[in-house]
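Input sequence (258 aa), recorded before submission:
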Amino acid sequence: MKIRYFFELGILALALTSCKSLSNNSKDDVTESTKDPNALNILTSSSVLTVSNTLELKTNLDNLNLTVSLSNDCLSYNNGLLTACKAGLCYVNVSYLDHTDSISVMVENASDISSDPYENVNKDEFYANYHEATSYMDAYYRTQHYLLSGTDHLDSQEPTLSSYQPKSDSKYIRNSSAIYSADKKTYYIQDVNGNIVDKIYESGAYITLDQVAPYLMAFNNVPKNYITSRPSTAAGSPWGKYMRGNHSKFSGNTSSYP
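Predicted structure, token format:
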């Protein structure tokens, strides 16, 4: 079974998008090009909060009677302040008459991992009850024991085509803004509107295109389960089937899939 190099996946993704004209925009630029300037706009950007911290929710219509709704109980809202209650991704929706806008807020627990929790872990049990890493240190300790941090299912490596592809002046718009943690070790993946949809850690191991491509861009390197030495096979690697390498030439079509 061929082992495909992650950079090849990145090249494939870039080649597919290069067939279309792109206009790079930050979240603010997207807002300006796709929304009525007189409509309701949330001025607070999508962000990351630690549990118990607060964030002021500001809009261009703050003096009016706005309706604020939350997608779950990871946040609470009172008198213009969002308070982080528990870890998770929460969407904040604000409406006034027939106008609406929304942002996303990622709530995280303060890192409480101070020692290695995977010292004597059984890999079969670990993957039988698998969940993705929840912090940089969680991913770090997993990597020390050749354990995955990201999505554990093997995808088809076919790029996901978004059902929402906004344009401006006949050019596709993509969100080119970036959100990192304060220490630059966590990267938050956003959609075209700037909503946070996932996160990856510099210390982690990843296998899916949706997490590997952002990893290459965010950290200018390959994930920790990439192996450069020869010979290396999944059967002979401590990473097992989650090992990735660069031991074969890419011969696929970079203009279409498959």
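Checked by second reader. The radius of gyration is 21 Å.
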